[in-house]
Amino acid sequence: MSAPRAPRAWQRMLSGRRLDLLDPSPLDIEIEDIAHGLARVARWNGQTSGEQIFSVAQHSVLVELIARRQAEVAGVELDRRWRLAMLLHDAPEYVVGDMISPFKAVLGGDYKGVEARLLAAVSLRFGLPAQWPAVLVKKVKAADRASAFLEATRLAGFKVDEARRFFGTPFPLDPAVEREHLSPWSAGEAKARFLARFTELASIPLHDPSAGGPP
């Protein structure tokens, strides 16, 4: 009697790459696959207003923008690697989807382990450290929470006081910038704008003095 076949733990991407969720290789990661997937993954389980979903790709562009604005207020300029990390902070969701925080808490360590391995592989693929330094993680979380506050109150039906309890003090954006980045984009536009920002960040030389030093 033959042994039971092990369950499939890889996903085939449109690029043709086959990504192993248990042991992801940076060589199997393509930015086009990430952008395509994230542009079709809904934030807030799709419970947002508007005809289009508010995608993880759009959220990622907003987080990177907020991180830059937060740094400017603090009188510093983020190194382009850290700006790239902001854009890619939710990259694992192109494979595993966007689990809402309450469900992540239910799943616990198994989900977090898969997510961490995927993020490490993505990071290595694009020149970031596999393990992000604590100062970078802190900045990512601050920008992510600020983005979540705006999304929650503008799109997901949260009252301001309720959003403050979950996401902290809001970070103000110019009204025109806020309208542009919180009006849900189509999947095609979200993918294009995510890729455009990635290309812009990736084109900045690593040691360009104008990019600023690490935070």
UniProtKB/TrEMBL annotation:
* Taxonomic lineage: Bacteria, Pseudomonadati, Pseudomonadota, Alphaproteobacteria, Hyphomicrobiales
* GO MF term set: hydrolase activity
Q: Which organism is it from?
A: Ancylobacter defluvii
Kindly give the Pfam families that the UniProt entry links to this protein. Answer: HD_3 (PF13023)
> From which residue to which does any coiled coil extend?
none
Q: What is this protein called?
A: Hydrolase
Which key words are in the record? Hydrolase
Query: Has keyword Hydrolase?
Result: yes
InterPro entries, per the entry: HD_domain (IPR006674)
